[in-house]
Structures are given as structure tokens and as C-alpha cells.
Amino acid sequence: MKQCRQTELERDLTALLGRDNCLFSLEDLWTYSFDASKQRALPDAVVFPLCTDQVCAVMAYAHEHGIPVVPRGAGSGLTGGAVPAHGGIVMVLERMNKIIELDTDNLCAVVETGVVTALLQAAAAKAGLFYPPDPASQAFSTIGGNIAENAGGMRAAKYGVTKQYVLGLEVVLPNGDLIKLGSKCIKDVAGYSMTELFVGSEGTFGIITQAIVKLVTLPETVKTLAVCFGSIQDAGRVVPQVLKSGVVPCTLEFIDAACLKAVLDVDPLHGCEHQIHGSTKAMLLIEVDGSAQVVEKDAQTILDICRESNMLSFRLAQTAKERESLWQVRRSIHGAIMGLCPKWLEEDISVPPASIPLMLEKLQDLAQKENLRILCFGHYADGNIHLSASEQEAPLTAERARTVKGLIFSETVKLGGRIAAEHGIGTAKKEYLGLNLDDATLNFAMKLKQMVDPKGLLNPGKVFPEKVWNSAYGLD
Ligand SMILES: Cc1cc2nc3c(=O)[nH]c(=O)nc-3n(C[C@H](O)[C@H](O)[C@H](O)COP(=O)(O)OP(=O)(O)OC[C@H]3O[C@@H](n4cnc5c(N)ncnc54)[C@H](O)[C@@H]3O)c2cc1C
């Protein structure tokens, strides 16, 4: 940005929000130039609005002066959604973090969207209620970021993803107008159902300032099982059988042998190694919750199915500590595999759940053919695979990563899968979106974006392939 425009920007934003709620120094701007995807681009200013009126004021100002705005929660996104790809203002919502109301009679909460997910969960639990969406980043990610990404988590098999919990939203549009969508009512067809349009919109339709989210009652009890199998196929057969049995597990995670080894190599005294069979090629971590009676019966049904599918061994956590140590294995995967390679190609794909074993086989074939390391874990019951790929001894070069990504996505799509399950498209996958959306669908999405944001100033450079974006906004 030219020096005189930068000076004006600093003066005007300071007048709108106060000195304490703006950052302009280079070192501060660097701090907000990246998210967990590790992509980078420098903003011209960072602002921390304290209320919806301030959000409206900044948006109206940016609209008038043609300045891009990028909403940001905790910056834990994995696809570059909060990176200011075209510069401009990064708007951090973290100071709008009030839980405005916990409505224990109507089982819902009204929150500002900067509230950290785990803090909402803790507040709900104190009132005997439960906010189920549980991205592994829940300790730091925000409700706004979760809604904008339609975040999932380990409990999605039973409880669904974020969109199932959004009853209503307050949104500031790119021109600064404020709109209110949805309500506390379970049944609400007063006008178009527009709330969903903003769920998963990756910060490209509006700044979500408040949300009404649904809560449920806390389950009475929970049982956790770790079941080891000698092959991916044996583990894979369990999933459709469990789902057909009428049991809905709260979580059904799988971990492949390489991830398991990485975790136990980092910490052989994890407390679980004696619970994991030496010939394990795939482990399922299964949790059932509900009333004590139902949970007992469900766990037994699952074990019977696992036995029929040649399980090698199982461990039913007997204490909270044992349960925690089993979950620790799952939670440690990301950190543990980082010790094997400084930079993985990390992907988040989904396939119809029954196709998981086939997809895992395809990934094994790909690893062999291309001489790659591919490690997999994920949410089996909802078909979501997280995978990390590298050369045998080194990270992939950028060009090779593009090729491998293309090969992985092409196998995914052949099985009726999606290139993004829960981490969004952002900048990381935008050039591949056409693999899932045909031209007519992509153009419809672009028309919606242009209608809401005719100047293309809200989170530009995200979601849409560059060519589609440039042609829509006349940048060819
Ligand atoms: C260790 C780790 C584990 C993770 N595990 C999971 C997981 O299990 N499941 C999962 O789904 N994701 C997971 N993620 C990804 C990430 O945490 C989620 O996408 C999360 O929802 C992002 O929230 P955030 O507050 O950090 O948002 P940010 O990263 O700041 O922003 C994400 C997107 O939302 C937009 N945005 C943020 N706030 C608003 C708002 N108020 N209004 C409009 N747009 C907004 C941004 O512009 C951006 O496009 C993980 C990430 C990490 C680092």
C-alpha cells in the first residue's frame, strides 16, 4: 500500500477502534500474516473489534475505500483461510468472546463468535449441557472459525458437525450492513433458510459476529475401546457392520500402523504399549456414550462384531486415566509424525464410509508406485481420512507435492469422495475445487459471492480457482 494511503488507513482505523485495538508495526503484521497452514502474506493493518458496531464501521470503511478484509479467529485453519492473500485488513474476532446467554430451558447458547470452543463446552458442561462439535483444535479455535469452516471432529459420527448446531447467526456483510438469520426456534421457515449459507463460507460472505448454537444434554457415561487388527481390511469390515447393527458410536477413529509406531517411538512409555498387539496394522478407537445400560450393551455389540472381523486384541478402558492414555495416542499423532519429517503434504479427504478400506488400499498402492511414505488416521465412521505424505527420507518438493495431491484427489473423486472433509478449501485446495464441483455449480457459487460481495473485498483469493475469480471480478 502506498505510504500516504497507509498513513490514512492507520489514522482512520485508529479513529474507528481506538489505538489499543489496532496494530500497524511490521513485526505485528508478520504475526498475523499466517495461519496453521503456514502460508504467508502480509496485511496492511490488524484490527480487534470489541463489538458488532465496530465491525460494521470497519466493513463500511473498507468497502468505501476498496480495501480487502480478512476475518480471523485463532488462526488455526489448515488451508490458509485467514491468510491475507491480497493484503488489506486482518480483522481478529478474539476480543468479541462473550457467552451472552446459556439458555438451559431452550437448550441453546447465544455467543459472540470470538469465544474459544472449549470454553463454550466447559460453560455448557457446568450447566449439565453439552456442545458436541469437537475439532482437535477446540482448546484454541473459535466458534466463528468453526462455523466459517463447518468444523468437524471425532464425535461427528454420532453428533454431526458444526452446521448441525447453528440455529442462528448475526452477520456483518461486506458493505457494513448487519443481518440476523435464524432464531432459537427449532422450526423456523420464516423466509429462506439463509443461516446455512454462511456455515462453511470460509469468511468470504460476511463477518459472523454472533451465533445461536444448539446444546444437548450431557451423556450419562462413556466407554472407550481400543481394538487392534492385523489388516486394514479387517478393521474396515467392522465399520459398516457396527453402523448396520443400530449402534451409533460417539467416535470411531482409526490409526494405521505407521502412525501408531510414530507415537509409541516418541513415547514408548505412553502407558498403552502393552495394550497394543505387536502385529497391529490398524487400530480402532471406539467410544460409546449414553445411559450406563445402553453403553454396556453397545460396547458388547461392537466387541462381538470386532471378534467376527478377526480382531487381534482389545482393551476396554477401566479408568478415566486409562481412557485418557488411549486418547493420548490419538492426539499425539500430529506431533509424533512431525519428528519423522519436518514438512508433510497433509490432506483431509472424505469418501463414503464403506469405501474407506478401498481408499486406504489405493493410498498404499500410490505410496508403493511413487515410492512415498503415506501415513493415515482419521474418523472412520464418517469417511474422513487425514493423511500425511512425503518422500521416503525427505519432504516433497513443491512440484512433486502438487502431483501427489492431484493423484490423491483423483482417487478420492473416483470413489465418490470429496477433496475437503472438514478443513475447508482456502487457498490450499482452490485450484482443485473443480474436481468436486462442475462448472455450473462453481459458477452458481461465484454468482452468490458476487451478489454478497460485488467488489470482491471480503477474504479475496480464497475458495475459487484463480481463473474463475479473475474472470468474475474482471481481473483477466
Ligand atoms: C492441531 C490442529 C487440529 C485441528 N483439528 C481439527 C479437527 O479435528 N476438525 C476440524 O474441522 N478442524 C481442525 N483443525 C482446523 C481448524 O482448527 C479449524 O478449521 C477451526 O475451525 C478454525 O478456527 P479458528 O478460530 O482458528 O479460525 P481461523 O483459522 O482464524 O479462520 C478460519 C476461517 O474462518 C474465517 N473466519 C474466522 N472467524 C470468522 C468469523 N467470525 N466470521 C467469518 N469468518 C471467520 C477465516 O477468514 C478463515 O477463512 C485443526 C487445526 C489444528 C492446528
From TrEMBL:
Listed EC numbers: 1.1.3.15
Domain FAD-binding PCMH-type: 39-218
Enzyme class: oxidoreductase
Record InterPro entries: FAD-bd_oxidored_4_C (IPR004113), FAD-bd_PCMH (IPR016166), FAD-bd_PCMH-like_sf (IPR036318), FAD-bd_PCMH_sub2 (IPR016169), FAD-linked_Oxase-like_C (IPR016164), FAD-linked_OxidoTrans_Type4 (IPR051914), Oxid_FAD_bind_N (IPR006094), Vanillyl_alc_oxidase_C-sub2 (IPR016171)
Listed Pfam families: FAD-oxidase_C (PF02913), FAD_binding_4 (PF01565)
Keywords: FAD, Flavoprotein, Oxidoreductase
PROSITE patterns per the UniProt record, alphabetical: FAD_PCMH (PS51387)
An example Gene Ontology molecular-function term: (S)-2-hydroxy-acid oxidase activity
Protein name, per record: GlcD3
